[in-house]
Amino acid sequence: MTEPYDLETLAIRSGIHRTQFNEHAEALFMTSSYIFDNAQQAADRFQNKEPGYIYSRFTNPTVNAFQERLAVMEGGECAIATASGMSAILTTMMGLLKAGDHVVVSQSIFGAAVQLFTNILARFGIEYTFVPLSDINGWKQAIKSNTRLFYLETPSNPTMELVDIEALSEVSKNANIHLVVDNCFCTPILQRPLLLGADIVIHSATKYIDGQGRVLGGAIVGSKAVLMDGIYSFLRTAGPSLSAFNAWILLKGLETLKLRVEAQSHAALELAKWLSDHPHVARVLHPGLSSHPQYDLAKKQQTHGGAVVSFEVKGGQEKAWKVIDSTQLISITGNLGDTKTTITHPATTTHGRISAEARKLAGISDGLIRVSVGLESLDDIKLDLSRGLD
Fold first, then answer.
1. Is the pLDDT of residue 3 over 80?
2. Nearest to 55 by CA among 87, 29, 94
3. If we measure between CA atoms, which residue out of 212, 188, 165, 174 comes closest to residue 79?
4. Could you tell me which of 323, 294, 315 has the C-alpha nearest to residue 386?
5. Per DSSP, what are the bridge partners of residue 82?
6. Which of 192, 227, 255 is a domain's end point?
7. What is the reported pLDDT for 135?
């Protein structure tokens, strides 16, 4: 699509390549391989001399449709879809890094991502340094001669901390370092990091892009120069691929993404305000609250505060577990971004495998609860949380 359409139009109309049957909905191509006209064509495609489909591990029309749609929504040239959000992070790192390289990482990232850097990538000789997310000078000071990449989430999971993407982009570009931003919490509806100077955007499409807790998926978005060499080559060879069926589900999720995320974000802000006034709540973390330490930055680089609210209850883990266990409507699960509101205790679930010291540095206390606000009645969500809070 060449016209400058609005985001909600691109979410529905981009990435469509109709077959000879001229179907209205996107086709689902459930095939592992493709037929060539002759041996010469097969050889040319395998040697990248002719474009076309070869094998669904790395070329599939339905997956391509999802990649095209997400890329145009994020403002990128292309996208690479993967089997999950974590495989998107792994594919990026394995595609861009080698033994002896150094990565600067935000200390406020998802627990499994911490494990990836400390327990897996480190075994392959990739060095890392954790820094406070919002400390631009800290990122700058952590740079070494072998630093190749910055990796972060903004807002962070689950403490809702932000970083000035434009300011950090200036630091990374001056040092010839790739800036990789996980945009899972915002999606392109609320924030587009590539337009703020990031080189790569990572998605766990499992979350808001699907939006209904059905399938796993991940994506990497950026320029062709950055993505189509090492990163695509890793996916083609190692195969952390997105299935055609999951890609088709995610395509449908993109069509309603704006409606869902904006409605959930509005509800989350109202819930955050309500929690802020509750006598048993010590603090509430949401970028849309004026009490958030980076409220002005959130207004600058996001259109809304997002649909996740984290709050700390008085009484530590015991009280936090009581609030969670008292819910009758909200789903107790580690997933987020669903139309169903979910709740979890990060210190013992999503971040339970990292050390207590690392959790403390990331601001994850034993009393912290994370709520991903869905599309139920806000009054019913408040009532459900009140059962344990009161």
1. no
2. 29
3. 188
4. 323
5. 218, 241
6. 255
7. 97
- Same-domain status, 47 and 17: yes
- Say if residues 343 and 370 touch (Cβ distance below 8 Å): yes
Under 8 Å between Cβ of 368 and 310? yes
On whether both 165 and 206 belong to a single domain, the answer is yes
**Domain of 169, in residue numbers:** 7-255
CATH code assigned at 332? 3.90.1150.10
- Residue type for position 49: K
Same domain, 283 and 184: no
Q: What are phi and psi of 305, to 5 degrees?
A: -75, -15
Judged by DSSP in three states, 106 sits in strand
Length, in residues, of the chain = 390
| Pair 205, 277 in one domain | no
Rounded distance, CA 86 to CA 268, Å?
A: 26
Q: Which of 329, 340, 339, 333 is nearest to 370 (CA)?
A: 333
What beta strand segments (E) does the chain contain?
78-82, 102-106, 127-131, 147-153, 178-182, 200-204, 218-222, 281-285, 308-313, 331-332, 342-344, 368-372
Mean predicted confidence (pLDDT) in 314-334: 97
Summarize pLDDT for 115-129 with one digit per residue, the tens. 999 999 999 999 999
Asked if residues 390 and 277 have their Cβ atoms less than 8 Å apart, the reply is no
Q: Which residues pair with 128 in a beta bridge?
A: 103
Structural domains in the chain (count): 2
Is the pLDDT at 217 greater than 90, yes or no? yes
Amino acid in the structure at residue 224: K
Of 255, 290, 316, the domain-final residue = 255
360 and 324, same domain (yes or no): yes
pLDDT at 327: 98
Angle between helices 378-389 and 257-276 (to 10 degrees): 40
